[in-house]
């Protein structure tokens, strides 16, 4: 049997950077069939830091591959060439808690209806966990990526099969045991969804959320929910295809930090070329955030979104952009800030028609693939992997500091963006030598050190951002002392004091021997004011006494 031994592919990959500093092609597939072709599945960053993925074609038998590569494309290994036991993997892999890779193929298996498979990250140990049987008792043609849930459970969808041959949601254990159908889609004219094309999303509530390409009350697709035990199934949204809605969702859902579900439709919206939408986990709050209309903004989003930090979503369109070969974009979760990050050009240094979701890497960069393009397009092999460098965004600025003399003051900043990030702290706009970490501390401060404005410049290869100023105030370390005593209109006496915050008694005397407490207070400020409003007093002296 061919293609079972991992093979290292060297010297066939491009690492040329585009003139655009935010984009880099990390490899182009080809020219040998062994390397694979047409990557269509989402990349996986493994626990070892490598990127893992699949190609729909190529390999020893031309039936697809599994590969791994470093993030710069320099260490590429073809882990498996698929044979007629399972073939044409069109989606990405997931990693189990014990480090095993898990995936699906829409074809092959004992019944020719697709498979669930597992393999080790070194390419060894390939085996089939499930061969789909089609028919009313099973699904067929799994087109979505698996969900690896806590406890070792796997969840997925199959495009066909089930009681109505309109697809199923299934579950099985990571060792292949316990396979069962959680839901049979009823299809057209039933109000239920039909033909689930996309991967599932497991929400923060542990429920499963997904989309169907067709079905729903308008037969234009649906959003659904069900519990991980198969109970509680409900259709959350029926797409209508109008200007205020989309139709035919092909991409998976993603849940934002705000709890909303976000997704895309391939058609619909005001421009008829697809939408970005949001809704709550109970189906409320549905809104279209972006309607695609072609041109530089892109058109026809084929896959779902990726949630980044700071309420930003990232995605791709299959067409549109400056060359009508697809785009990568970003948009805020409230629908503002839409921007094209890259227009694919189809050249040797670029790809075209991205068909996979983006991956947010642990280094703060986005990784993705294109189905076509790259430097090698002979012998039917093609496609690329790319990296998008994200600019610096400051998410938590340095804050004003007020400290007591002799104490320390620390300023810190939190920022996102593609690593590495560099830092340069400044005082009154002058760089501070050696202050090049995300936090800066001054020790044993004295009153004369106060009054400075501190800021930091955070930089990466894409951009530099300067934070707002934080002001340092240093107060005396002595206890509160009376600075002034003023006679106010009406005969009241006002005391003004400053010093160390704490617990104090305000006392008065008429003979400098017998002191009487007027009040006691706990101050959190370095200044204190007290108004003695007594009207029947004789001449008094005042003092503040610190209470332990």
List keywords for this structure.
mainly beta; five-stranded antiparallel β-sheet; six-stranded mixed β-sheet; 548 residues
Please report the distance between the alpha carbons of the first and last residues.
83 Å
Number of alpha- plus pi-helical segments = 0
Helix proportion of residues, in percent? under 10%
Query: How big a fraction of the residues is strand?
Result: 35-45%
How many strand elements? 55
Main sheet properties: 6 strands, mixed
Low-confidence stretches: 1-20
CA-atom Rg in angstroms = 32 Å
Class per helix and strand makeup: mainly beta
Shape: elongated
Residue-averaged pLDDT: 91
Polypeptide structure, described:
Strands 41, 44, 45, 47, 48 and 49 form a 6-stranded mixed β-sheet that branches. A hairpin with a 7-residue loop joins β29 (275-279) and β30. The protein has 548 residues and is mainly β. The model is unreliable at 1-20 (pLDDT under 50). It is elongated and about 105 Å long. Helix content is 0%, strand content 42%.
């Amino acid at each position: 049997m061919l293609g079972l031994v991992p093979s290292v592919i060297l010297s066939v990959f491009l690492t040329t950077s585009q003139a655009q500093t935010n984009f880099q092609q990390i490899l182009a597939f080809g020219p040998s069939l062994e390397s694979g072709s047409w990557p269509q599945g989402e990349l996986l960053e493994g626990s070892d830091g490598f990127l893992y993925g699949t190609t729909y074609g190529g390999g020893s038998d031309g039936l697809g591959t599994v590969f791994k590569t470093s993030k710069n494309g320099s260490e590429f290994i073809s882990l498996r060439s698929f044979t007629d036991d399972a073939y044409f993997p069109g989606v990405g892999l997931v990693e189990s808690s014990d480090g095993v890779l898990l995936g699906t193929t829409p074809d092959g298996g004992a019944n020719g209806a697709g498979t669930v498979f597992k393999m080790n990250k070194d390419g060894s140990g390939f085996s089939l966990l499930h061969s789909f049987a089609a028919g009313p008792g099973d699904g067929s043609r799994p087109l979505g990526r698996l969900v690896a849930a806590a406890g070792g459970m796997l969840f997925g969808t199959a495009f066909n099969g089930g009681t109505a041959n309109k697809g199923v949601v299934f579950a099985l254990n990571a060792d292949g045991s316990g396979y069962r159908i959680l839901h049979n889609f009823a299809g057209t004219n039933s109000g239920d969804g039909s033909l689930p094309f996309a991967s599932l999303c497991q929400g923060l509530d542990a429920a499963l959320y997904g989309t169907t390409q067709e079905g729903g009350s308008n037969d234009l697709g649906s959003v659904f929910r069900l519990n991980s035990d198969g109970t509680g199934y409900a259709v959350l949204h029926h797409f209508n295809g109008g200007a205020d809605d989309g139709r035919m969702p092909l991409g998976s859902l993603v849940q934002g930090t705000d709890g909303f579900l976000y997704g895309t439709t391939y058609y619909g919206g005001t421009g008829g070329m697809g939408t970005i939408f949001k809704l709550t986990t109970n189906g409320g709050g549905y809104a279209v955030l972006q309607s695609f209309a072609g041109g530089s903004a892109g058109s026809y989003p084929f896959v779902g979104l990726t949630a980044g930090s700071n309420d930003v979503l990232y995605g791709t369109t299959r067409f549109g952009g400056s060359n009508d070969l697809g785009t990568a974009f970003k948009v805020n979760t409230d629908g503002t800030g839409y921007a094209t990050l890259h227009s694919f050009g189809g050249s040797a240094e670029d790809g075209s028609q991205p068909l996979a979701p983006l991956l947010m890497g642990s280094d703060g960069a986005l990784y993705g693939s294109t189905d076509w393009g790259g430097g090698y397009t002979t012998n039917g092999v093609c496609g690329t992997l790319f990296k998008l460098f994200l600019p610096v965004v400051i998410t938590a600025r340095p804050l004003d500091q007020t400290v007591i003399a002799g104490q320390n003051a620390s300023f810190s900043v939190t920022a996102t963006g593609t690593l590495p990030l560099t830092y340069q702290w400044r005082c009154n706009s002058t760089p501070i030598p050696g202050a090049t970490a995300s936090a800066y501390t001054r020790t044993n401060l004295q009153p004369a050190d106060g009054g400075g404005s501190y800021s930091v410049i955070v930089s990466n290869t894409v951009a530099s951002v300067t934070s707002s100023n934080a002001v340092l105030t240093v107060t005396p370390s002595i206890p509160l002392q009376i600075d002034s005593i003023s006679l106010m209109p009406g005969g009241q006496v006002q005391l003004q004091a400053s010093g160390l915050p704490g617990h104090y008694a305000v006392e008065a005397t008429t003979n400098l021997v017998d002191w009487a407490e007027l009040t006691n207070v706990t101050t959190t400020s370095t200044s204190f004011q007290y108004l003695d409003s007594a009207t029947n007093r004789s001449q008094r002296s005042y003092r503040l006494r610190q209470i332990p």
